[in-house]
Amino acid sequence: MRQRTEWFDLPDALRDAITARTGEILDARTVSEGMNSPLAATLRTTDRVVFVKGTPNDHAGVVTQGREAMINPHVRPVAPALLWHIEDTAGWDVLGFEHVEGRHPDYAPGSPDLPAVVAAVDALGALPCPDLPIKDENRWRSYLDGNDPSPFAGSALLHTDYRPSNLLVVDDGTARIVDWAWPTRGAPWIDPACLLVWLIAFGHTPDQAEAHAARTRAWKTATPEGLDLFALANVRLWDDIAGHDPQDWTQRMSSAAQRWAHARGVSTPS
């Protein structure tokens, strides 16, 4: 992640454009969590709190922010609402969301947060999917060792990135899904499968993780062959990520993908 840009370090024209949408800003606090946005802050006004994220227009993140703005009307039942989008002002692109007061879930075995997380994934699986440029069979093709990616095709709306920082557990006990950088169209069981690899990385056995995934309606559409192929793709994906970015969490995800594939009897030759 780039170093965060503080509110008062933004260009005056951009702060004026944001204030025109929010009203007088009484307090601005930089958010430390998250990976990609140079600007991430909560802005407190006289009558509400707004979460803003932004990036300079010459940053690659402007593309993913455009995706977030595009998909938001379709995911509001499970995600914070986008209030406004400032494009190309003082060289910046900024999104303003309703602020959701919550905390990131605990993925450890036995965590009381797990039912809410699974319920959010299940609820997303019931939403209609708009026509999206990103198709899951294309995203994973390079990790399939030449295998046919068609089992990943489908018409479901997918998030695909279930790291704990991409969910918020709120006061009513439900979970909201945030950071929609890669909205994807694909087979409905893929999102529960993406979640289960994270659960394994946080201490679940593969059987325990699959049991949580099985609590979603989408999981019932999975075939053993499709899951085996997805397990292989995850090994390749996380090996690649960990190789290029050898942090503790990427190494844990690589190991988790390996454990899932091994539990399913999937061969992963070098």
Automatic annotation (TrEMBL):
Residues 123-219 form the Aminoglycoside phosphotransferase domain. InterPro entries: Aminoglycoside_PTrfase (IPR002575), Kinase-like_dom_sf (IPR011009). Pfam families: APH. It comes from the Bacteria. This is Aminoglycoside phosphotransferase domain-containing protein. It comes from Actinokineospora iranica.
